[in-house]
# Entry
Amino acid sequence: MTGSRGRARERNGQRLAVVGGVFVAVATVVGFGSFALLGDDEAEGEPSNIAATDDPSGQDPSEDSGPPTEQEVLETSGAFLDAWEAGDVRAAAALTDDEEAARAALDALPERASLSELTLNESTPSGGSVPFTVDAVVEYEDAGATQQQDWSYDSELTVVRDEGSDQPVVRWEPTVLHPGLGEGQSLETGPVSELPPVEMLDRNGDVLTAEEHPTLAGVIADVRERYAEEAGGSTGTELRIVDAEGKRVEQLVELAEPTAGQVPTTIDPAVQAATEQAVRNADGDRASAVAIQPSTGEILAVANKPAEGFDTALQGSYAPGSTFKIVTSSLLIEEGLASAGASHPCPKEFEYGGWPFHNDDNFDIKDGTFADSFAASCNTAFISQAPELEDDSLGNHARDVFGLGLTWEVGVQTLDGSVPTQSDAQMAASLIGQGGVRMNPLTMASVSATVKNGGFLQPYLVPPSFDGRTLAQASSALDPAAAAELRGLMNTTALWGTAAEAMSGVSGDIGAKTGSAEVDGQEKPNAWFTGYSDDLAVAAVVPNSGHGGEFAGPVVAEVLNAAP
# Structure
């Protein structure tokens, strides 16, 4: 601050010259007064040549309560700016009409705004107003190192006469520090954003944006929040005006631009585009779908209609209806209660736990096999086995073999399925995906993927190698023979069962299962469909629409057909 010290000396010289002038004037007046008192040539009662005043200067005291003189303005503003520049906050604040507020604001400035090397240069006053320029250095952290940037701005102060002391003082107001400051506001240097920006990448390394993929907006936001630290970005730094609560009012200087970190995902742009289009084409106002690669567990696509709002595809909690018969079939095969080619009952009605269960349109299958019942989605073929099962049999099998109900580490928020232990009629209803069973397109796509792959691989959207998290693992393997049998059941259903119409145009190694879940108080059932073709498994739900094959089937088929 070389130039400022010279200016301070000049200000001090001005003050000394004035003090000297005042001293001479006072001495002259005192000498004159003494002479007058000693020489009493004036007649008693005649007017005196000396004004009747206690002020030895001979001036009217009322003049001291007027506006500060030009010299007082120069001296007071100069002394204030000198003290502020030198870091003598106590002295600077003492020269204002609100010492407490001024001291608090001046004290906070170096720390909160990170200002140093302050140089203040005043311009020509206009009345009591004194414009001045602030030159400072702002210090901030960026990329792990301390950085510096010059900053200059113009401000103004006003010198007034203090009502209590009649002395000239600086009128304290926030605008003295900076012209943009209002009451209760202050300057602060801090991060541009609370968290560093994060870019979510597809499997090809291209950026996925909410503008281009509105249905992924929630996923992108979740990824940004979860991986802000790991992604390698920076928040940037700014000098700003904040209110009393610390909220940004205005950015004054962007000192360092935020840099985005990057998080890889498994989203396949072609499959994602197809899935988004498929849910848009679905009948009704709502539809959701998820696509998974069975051989890896990678989530290739997530889509909802409407695109904005709750993410039903990953976080929904719906009864999956007959699509859950895939899991129940696996349990029955494991327990020796069913076999694809074996004879299996499918009566019109079966009562369990005091509740009569029936098939759609009350159909029955006489002398049929379990494969026939599965393909036709016969409810009573499954309910009839309830007496042979424990209350917790289905939940245990769903968790231990299909991973449903475990805590999945997908990389974003998900609901990972729920198969609670129930009894009587509710336990029986669970066997056909009703009762307390709750799933979503993610978990039902995983069921198809588990069958196609021959074992459970936890689905994930952010590769676990990115952050070192551990994926959920099923405690029991799916028996290879049972897996082959399940694939045969799903293939039969896709070729001539309830899924045949929807899957008629899908090629490759295919399998599927339909579902229609009744919901209390809802006019139509929720349509479900899950299936696979080669190394792609997809599930969809179209709420309050109708039969799964008619309403959810086309969504799944459209995605499977669009697979690269």
Remarks:
- The longest strand covers residues 145-161.
- The first helix runs from residue 2 to 38.
- The chain has three domains: 2-34+67-179, 198-264, 318-444+452-525.
